[in-house]
């Protein structure tokens, strides 16, 4: 492979904001795997946000990109999986599998798509120094006529339309809105775009903690909600605390510490069978490798309010943010019924294929 922009390349990133800023170009924020696509003739490489190759996990997408992309190009986009009228991030996670036979099977069962939103090189020219609006115009021209599973992300300069996307597209599984300065060159690895995501709050049961990698202080708090059958289900973690607060929390929560998991709602996490059966805290992870995911059981007696953006099945999609303790709430009041569900929206309408 010999391109004017070569792998590995970190994608340009976004910093969070509470409101959509004016005077920018706007796109939907896709909920998938960020990917830089490098094509040089018969060679294709899909680079992840961390620079690790994703190519082997998506053979069906590689075939489509070889068929549809310009002969020599580098583009920025998102790998997604569509099920019905929504994006399905759980199905995307399943694609990262060490067994080639499993990868090939899932390529047929849950094929992936690519949403392209930036062009970084074309032919022998690097476009990194070009302003965003020029790169976008070149992308539209270079990918004119592409078809499923390759798409070009919708874009608008209209702030009101972007606000409408923010309110509507969540129902199709999208994650918010990205705002891009139209005159900005592509700046790999820098947080120079703006992302605006949905934020909601929920009262959760504190049922455990993980120690921090640096020592005996709190790394993350394990959150639970009661389902309709009265079972306390793990829904995610909150983890963003200053180091001093991590130390204070460890001392503050010591009275809730259980000597072992016996009698805890999640005591089955200790069994190898349970770990193999599902994605449970404390279990092995394809993403973290040998990272220690051990946890400390706490009596599920304390309630905290957290902020979250949206759900992935029955769990928080991203790390939740601690807001406050809720001594006025009983743990049994912390159920899924409190969670807000977005109004459904057909993904085909987002992509203009409906």
From TrEMBL:
<dbReference type="GO" id="GO:0006281">
    <property type="term" value="P:DNA repair"/>
</dbReference>
<protein>
    <recommendedName>
        <fullName>DNA ligase (ATP)</fullName>
        <ecNumber>6.5.1.1</ecNumber>
    </recommendedName>
</protein>
<dbReference type="InterPro" id="IPR044117">
    <property type="entry name" value="OBF_LigC-like"/>
</dbReference>
<dbReference type="InterPro" id="IPR044119">
    <property type="entry name" value="Adenylation_LigC-like"/>
</dbReference>
<dbReference type="Pfam" id="PF01068">
    <property type="entry name" value="DNA_ligase_A_M"/>
</dbReference>
<dbReference type="InterPro" id="IPR016059">
    <property type="entry name" value="DNA_ligase_ATP-dep_CS"/>
</dbReference>
<dbReference type="GO" id="GO:0006310">
    <property type="term" value="P:DNA recombination"/>
</dbReference>
<dbReference type="InterPro" id="IPR012310">
    <property type="entry name" value="DNA_ligase_ATP-dep_cent"/>
</dbReference>
<keyword id="KW-0436">Ligase</keyword>
<dbReference type="InterPro" id="IPR012309">
    <property type="entry name" value="DNA_ligase_ATP-dep_C"/>
</dbReference>
<dbReference type="InterPro" id="IPR012340">
    <property type="entry name" value="NA-bd_OB-fold"/>
</dbReference>
<dbReference type="InterPro" id="IPR050191">
    <property type="entry name" value="ATP-dep_DNA_ligase"/>
</dbReference>
<dbReference type="Pfam" id="PF04679">
    <property type="entry name" value="DNA_ligase_A_C"/>
</dbReference>
<dbReference type="GO" id="GO:0005524">
    <property type="term" value="F:ATP binding"/>
</dbReference>
<comment type="similarity">
    <text>Belongs to the ATP-dependent DNA ligase family.</text>
</comment>
<feature type="domain" description="ATP-dependent DNA ligase family profile">
    <location>
        <begin position="114"/>
        <end position="231"/>
    </location>
</feature>
<dbReference type="GO" id="GO:0003910">
    <property type="term" value="F:DNA ligase (ATP) activity"/>
</dbReference>
